Amino acid sequence: MTMLSKVVDDNVGQDAGSSMALHFYNLADPTSGDVINTQELAELTGMCLHADVYDFEKIIGRPLTVIERNLFGWEPRCAACGITDRMIRIRAKQQGQPSSTQLQKCMDCQSTFFCSPRHFALIKKTHGTVPINGYGNLSQCQLNQQIREDVRFFNLLADAKTSISPDAPTALADSAPLTWAPERVMDEWSSLKGSTWEGEFASHLDVPAGKGPFLRSASDGLALPMTILYALEVLNGEWKPKDTLVIHVLGPSGPEIQNSMVFEEIVHRLPGLKRLELLLCGPEMSAVNQTDTQGGPEMELDTCPTYHEHIQQKGSSFKVPDLAVAFNSGASEVESDSWKETMKMLIEKKVPSVFTSFNELEAGKESAMLSELGAPLVPELGPCRNPWGSMLLKTEPGRLDGFYNSNGWFAGGFK
């Protein structure tokens, strides 16, 4: 048991850890009336979440880790008023009453909660039948069910990997759920505008059942080459692939390394391409294994430190790549000063570039950063949804609605 878990389970710690959150909840009085103000509710749950994190960091004497913050971020809350089981228990204790009330869950998706029949009635219709814009006409309940299906599929794959390599279960569990790309090589370049994941890949799947979760899982890795190809097409108009293609990946992390094999999909879609050069540029990069293209075009993978430092070190020998791409950069959230230096350099050197993000909020912030620095943004590349973002959805932490996905949004593209 971690120290945080012990504190959460301890009654004294529980009182201290939720007293401020419950105070905000009582002041807002979100249980009054029969209409939910979603904006006010989102602000309230955000305040309660920050209060919990602040209180518990004081108790344990250090900042919470990302995993520990997620314990609060994904803590079940009533979808109508935002109250949690902990808050219910503490309120009952403060009032000297036994706490018999617990959050109940939607029996269809088992991922949305409510504290009373009246509150379930308030959210039932919207939750179960109203399509969420941008997600294939599926409701929140249906999307929650899809996420549960994808989690089960991931666990099946993880169990299979562990049985094959029992000595490395941790590394396998942390890796991408599925690294797959079709082996076919296309006869000619085909535009990606207006196409879909199903249209491009479903016919190449040969699985006994469950093409949906298989394709959604595979899209997590395939989103990398497909986003690159789509950005190249948008930035270059009537794009004619060249003999050599140079791609610089900025700030790469686990997904880019674990899925390096799927970059071969770029080669498979560009007939006539003889050489693909990939530069993975980040402060914590280590050597990356070469990808075997089995007698096809050459693929060269290299690494370097931060990109603006790389350009400075190259000096006059720096050659502008065909595209620089920052996947899920988080530039507005972490290392903002360093990212601004890189953005300035990209704009100054007129490097064709594209930035992606997990959600609309991050995309908007990063787009604003690029605009303030003078980037000539292309409207088709943000801030807007990325049609080739991962199909694997996750629920937004600390929110009662909303989803995010890897490379789900374009923050900005320019050249």
TrEMBL record:
<feature type="domain" description="Mitochondrial splicing suppressor 51-like C-terminal">
    <location>
        <begin position="225"/>
        <end position="393"/>
    </location>
</feature>
<dbReference type="InterPro" id="IPR046824">
    <property type="entry name" value="Mss51-like_C"/>
</dbReference>
<dbReference type="Pfam" id="PF20179">
    <property type="entry name" value="MSS51_C"/>
</dbReference>
<protein>
    <recommendedName>
        <fullName>Mitochondrial splicing suppressor 51-like C-terminal domain-containing protein</fullName>
    </recommendedName>
</protein>
